[in-house]
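pls design
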C-alpha cells in the first residue's frame, strides 16, 4: 500500500510539473503573438501618416516613424522596463502591497545587465512580456508622430520619441497600470486597456510639442481661419487606420495576464494587470462594439471618411479602460460618445491655431481621458484589486487619474520641445519645408516617375 501511495504521489508530481511546463509554454506563446500583432499598429501608423502627408513629405513622415520604433527598443530595454517595476509607489521606490515593485524587485526583474534580461533558459516569459511593453512604448511615439508631420526635424522628433516612449508613459504605467501603483492602491484607478496610461499621456505630450512646434506654412490665414492641407493619399490613410485597429487586438491582448505566470496572483483564469478577472469573450464583444459605435458616431458628425475611420479607433479607445467590465450595449454607447467628441475637440484645437495634422490631441488625448472617466461613471463600485480591503472604482478616483495622466503627458512634452526649440533642433528651416522634406532630408522622392517629372516635349505632327 505504501509503495502504491508513493508511486501515485510521484505520478501526480510529474503531472503537475508537466502541466506547469505546458502552462509556461502557452503563456510565452500568448505574449509572443501579441508582438507581431502590435507591429501591425506601426505598419498602420506608417501608412496613415504617409497618406496624410503631401507627396513631397511622404517618405520623411515614414522614416521618422521607423526611427522612433528602432530607438525606443534599446532605450526601453535600458530604462523603461526598470522604471515600470521600480516606481509604482512613487519616487521612494519602496515595495507596494502586492510586492512586485520597488528598487530591489526591479533590480531582480529588470536589471538591464542582469541574467533575467538575457538568454536565461530558466525564464520563458520575461523577454516576450518585455516585448509587449516595448510595443506599447513605441505606440506612444507613433501617436505623437502623425501630428507633427511635414515640419519637424528628425533628430528633434527622435529625442521626443525616446523621452515619451522610454521615460514618460512608463512612469504613468507604473502609477496607474500596476497593481502596486499608487493611483490604484490609493484611488482605485482602473485603466485596463490603457486609455489613460498610453493614449491620454501620448495625446497631451503631443499637445505640448505642437505649441512649440507651430503650424505648417499656409495652414492659418492672418485672420486666424484655417486652410485644409490634404494628404496625397486618402486611401493609404484609411488602410493605415484599419491596420492600426487590427493591431489593437494584439495591444489589448497584451493587457491580459495569462494565468499561472509570475505576474498573476489568481489561478485558472485570465486577469487584468490589477489581478481582477477578465474573459476574452467579454473583450471581443466590447472591442467590436467600440469599433462600431465610434465609426457610426464620427460618420454622422462629419460625413468624412478620415474621421469615420479615426472614430472607429476612438471608439475602441473610449471603451479600452473598462473593456473588462462593460456590458456590450453600454460599450457601444460609450464609444458613440467618444466618436462624437473627437471631431468637436479637433475643431476647437484648430481654432486655437494649433496645427494637429491628424487630430491626435482629440483622438488620443481627450478621448483617452473620456475612456478613463467613463469607467468612473459606468463602473463605479467594482473592486480595483482582488486583495482583501482593496479600494473600489469611483468617479473621483478616475478623475484624479485622468488629471495625472494629462499633466504627466503635457508638462514634459512642452518642456522638452521648448528646450529643443531653443537649441534649433525642433523645426526644419522654412526653405526646406517649402521644398519638401523628402528632397532635403531623405533625400529620395516617393513617386519620382510621375510626380514632379517634367513632361516630354511635344512631337510635331507629320
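designed seq:
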Amino acid at each position: 500500500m505504501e509503495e502504491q501511495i508513493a508511486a501515485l504521489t510521484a505520478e501526480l508530481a510529474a503531472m503537475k510539473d508537466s502541466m506547469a511546463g505546458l502552462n509556461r509554454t502557452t503563456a510565452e506563446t500568448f505574449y509572443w503573438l501579441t508582438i507581431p500583432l502590435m507591429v501591425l499598429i506601426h505598419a498602420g501608423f506608417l501608412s496613415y501618416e504617409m497618406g496624410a502627408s503631401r507627396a513631397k513629405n511622404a517618405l520623411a513622415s515614414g522614416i521618422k516613424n521607423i526611427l522612433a520604433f528602432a530607438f525606443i527598443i534599446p532605450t526601453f530595454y535600458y530604462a523603461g522596463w526598470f522604471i515600470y517595476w521600480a516606481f509604482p509607489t512613487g519616487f521612494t521606490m519602496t515595495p507596494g502591497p502586492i510586492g512586485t515593485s520597488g528598487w530591489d524587485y526591479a533590480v531582480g526583474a529588470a536589471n538591464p545587465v542582469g541574467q533575467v534580461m538575457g538568454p536565461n533558459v530558466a525564464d520563458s516569459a520575461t523577454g516576450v512580456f518585455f516585448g509587449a511593453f516595448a510595443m506599447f512604448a513605441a505606440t506612444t511615439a507613433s501617436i505623437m508622430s502623425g501630428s507633427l508631420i511635414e515640419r519637424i526635424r528628425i533628430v528633434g522628433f527622435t529625442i521626443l520619441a525616446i523621452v515619451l516612449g522610454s521615460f514618460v508613459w512608463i512612469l504613468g504605467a507604473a502609477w496607474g497600470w500596476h497593481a502596486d501603483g499608487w493611483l490604484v492602491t490609493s484611488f482605485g484607478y482602473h485603466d485596463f486597456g490603457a486609455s489613460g496610461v498610453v493614449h491620454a499621456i501620448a495625446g497631451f505630450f503631443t499637445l505640448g510639442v505642437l505649441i512649440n512646434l507651430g503650424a505648417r506654412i499656409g495652414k492659418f490665414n492672418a485672420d486666424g481661419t484655417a486652410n485644409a492641407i490634404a494628404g496625397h493619399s486618402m486611401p493609404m490613410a484609411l488602410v493605415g487606420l484599419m491596420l492600426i485597429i487590427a493591431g489593437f487586438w494584439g495591444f489589448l491582448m497584451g493587457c491580459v495576464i495569462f494565468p499561472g505566470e509570475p505576474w498573476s496572483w489568481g489561478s485558472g483564469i485570465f486577469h487584468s494587470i490589477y489581478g481582477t478577472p477578465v474573459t476574452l469573450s467579454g473583450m471581443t464583444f466590447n472591442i467590436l462594439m467600440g469599433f462600431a459605435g465610434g465609426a457610426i458616431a464620427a460618420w454622422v458628425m462629419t460625413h468624412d471618411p478620415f474621421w469615420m475611420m479615426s472614430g472607429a479607433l476612438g471608439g475602441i479607445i473610449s471603451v479600452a479602460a473598462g473593456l473588462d467590465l462593460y456590458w456590450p450595449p453600454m460599450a457601444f454607447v460609450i464609444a458613440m460618445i467618444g466618436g462624437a467628441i473627437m471631431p468637436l475637440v479637433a475643431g476647437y484645437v484648430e481654432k486655437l491655431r494649433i496645427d494637429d495634422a491628424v487630430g491626435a490631441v482629440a483622438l488620443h488625448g481627450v478621448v483617452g481621458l473620456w475612456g478613463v472617466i467613463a469607467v468612473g461613471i459606468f463602473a463605479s463600485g467594482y473592486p480595483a484589486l482582488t486583495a482583501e480591503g482593496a479600494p473600489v472604482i469611483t468617479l473621483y478616483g478616475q478623475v484624479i487619474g485622468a488629471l495625472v495622466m494629462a499633466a504627466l503627458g503635457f508638462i514634459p512634452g512642452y518642456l522638452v520641445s521648448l528646450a529643443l526649440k531653443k537649441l534649433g533642433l525642433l523645426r526644419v528651416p522654412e526653405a526646406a519645408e517649402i521644398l519638401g522634406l523628402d528632397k532635403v532630408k531623405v533625400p529620395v522622392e516617393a513617386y519620382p516617375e510621375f510626380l514632379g517629372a517634367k513632361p516630354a516635349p511635344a512631337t510635331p505632327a507629320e
